[in-house]
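Why should sequence recovery work at all? Because a backbone constrains its sequence more than one might expect. Tight turns favour small or flexible residues, buried strands favour hydrophobic ones, and helices have their own preferences. The token representation captures these environments compactly. In the example below, the structure is given first.
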């Protein structure tokens, strides 16, 4: 897991992070009293990781907080707040707002869940300019796919017939990491920049409640007087916070390794067709290659493990399928959904790799699960998706349902070959050593296991209730 840690100190501008045992390409840079230490620590031992954390905590003890964080704020007093931080306008403004209103130090936290390197660039300078005392960045991509995406995939969880839960799955892994960071840095509160109209506020806060009910939660959008972008810019100028110079998108987007969502602007009218240039992960199916591409997806116990016979880590496998599916225009979804807070919203989603994997898992289950198992699994999948959408990832019910999904798919192993062509995913073949399909039984030719004459008695017994009802209606009609 990769960390980027930032601390502010007037007396000691550099963080004394001992790195003698962590020789994996560490480097440091300094911005006017704020030291930034980058650790490529994906393969670090736990002892080395704890050493880095202890060094940051030690430096915190030596740090004198600015005078603005010593006093009670306008709304109360908190010691230290961990803020879900993106570096955009909203979160840049939240940093000084928290300091002013709660008299606290602010630790900015950014999670890498595969949103792209461009969204992680320049965070050091932005955090320092906003007044944060520390920045922590963690690479959660493998954890996100392995522990959140793949369980949902195995369950067949789809919300309201279409949505593959991209944002819904990402929020609990980010919130869990925030709870961990709060413990590491000694914070007594967490904060997020979600609006009071959306689902994400619920997803973050239910995770906080489940994992550490003692943490206070601050949601500025439910408290402050800022009503839009212009108000935020004015607040930033008043508090000497540089306004991010990135171009404002006309769409509200959320991206991670599983999907990319688009909302807002012309999409707010369900009658409007999305513009062709809005899409970012996939080409227009009309512009996709004229030649189809075949893929073999290997699956073990309901979990994808390989592409064309090559075993890959969860995040790498998904990333490669995003590239492959994207160039064939796979995985575009346009839907009107029911938000948890009650209103309807229109969103467009791109999930190229996820659409391929969902098709592969579903097709393999057609071989390995019997009728009753498939029907009951589908029923449970609806509730599973609803719980994930509603932010109840750490609810005992979802965890118990996941145990069922793990057990019911233990024989869902094998491979599925799919044909990708101009936006469509077509199954070409399915193979499993646990297949319940028997050619000697299913064949139209006569066999020893299935005697066609037996069907007559079966039909009479199966249709007996319908026959009795018809007899009754006939008698009543005579009378």
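From this structural description, the recovered sequence reads:
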């Amino acid at each position: 897991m990769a960390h980027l840690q930032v601390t502010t100190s007037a007396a000691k501008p550099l963080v004394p992070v001992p790195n003698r045992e962590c020789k994996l390409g560490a480097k440091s840079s300094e911005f006017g009293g704020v030291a930034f230490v980058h650790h490529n620590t994906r393969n670090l031992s736990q002892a080395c990781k704890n050493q880095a954390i202890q060094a940051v905590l030690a430096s915190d003890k030596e740090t004198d907080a600015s005078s603005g964080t010593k006093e009670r704020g306008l709304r109360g007093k908190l010691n230290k707040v961990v803020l879900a931080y993106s570096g955009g306008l909203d979160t840049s403004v939240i940093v000084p707002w928290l300091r002013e209103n709660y008299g606290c130090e602010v630790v900015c936290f950014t999670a890498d869940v595969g949103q792209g390197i461009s969204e992680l660039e320049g965070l050091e300078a932005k955090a320092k300019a906003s007044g944060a005392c520390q920045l922590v960045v963690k690479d959660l991509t493998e954890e996100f796919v392995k522990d959140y995406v793949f369980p949902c995939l195995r369950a067949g969880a789809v919300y309201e017939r279409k949505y593959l839960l991209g944002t819904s799955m990402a929020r609990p892994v980010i919130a869990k990491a925030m709870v961990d960071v709060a413990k590491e840095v000694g914070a007594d509160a967490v904060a997020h920049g979600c609006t009071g109209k959306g689902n994400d506020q619920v997803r973050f806060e239910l995770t906080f409640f489940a994992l550490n009910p003692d943490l206070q939660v601050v949601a500025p959008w439910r408290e402050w007087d800022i009503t839009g972008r212009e108000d935020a810019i004015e607040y930033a100028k008043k508090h000497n916070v540089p306004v991010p110079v990135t171009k404002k998108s006309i769409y509200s987007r959320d991206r991670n390794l599983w999907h990319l969502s688009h909302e807002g602007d012309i999409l707010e009218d369900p009658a409007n067709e999305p513009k062709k240039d809005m899409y970012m992960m996939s080409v227009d199916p009309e512009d996709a290659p004229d030649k189809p591409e075949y893929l073999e997806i290997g699956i073990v116990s309901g979990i994808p493990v390989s592409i064309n016979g090559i075993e890959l880590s969860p995040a790498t496998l998904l990333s490669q399928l995003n590239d492959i599916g994207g160039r064939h225009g796979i995985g575009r979804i346009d839907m009107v959904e029911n938000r948890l807070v009650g209103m309807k919203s229109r969103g467009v989603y791109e999930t190229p790799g996820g659409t391929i994997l969902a098709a592969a898992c579903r097709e393999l289950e057609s071989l390995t699960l019997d009728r009753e198992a498939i029907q009951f699994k589908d029923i449970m999948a609806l509730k599973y998706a609803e719980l994930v959408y509603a932010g109840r990832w750490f609810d005992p019910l979802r965890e118990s349902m996941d145990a069922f999904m793990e057990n019911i798919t233990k024989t869902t192993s094998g491979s599925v070959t799919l044909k990708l062509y101009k936006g469509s995913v077509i199954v070409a073949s399915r193979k499993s050593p646990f297949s319940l399909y028997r050619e000697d039984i299913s064949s139209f030719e006569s066999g020893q296991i299935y005697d066609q004459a037996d069907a007559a008695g079966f039909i009479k017994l199966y249709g007996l209730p319908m026959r009795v009802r018809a007899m009754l209606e006939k008698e009543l009609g005579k009378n």
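A few observations help interpret the result. The two ends are 80 Å apart (CA to CA).
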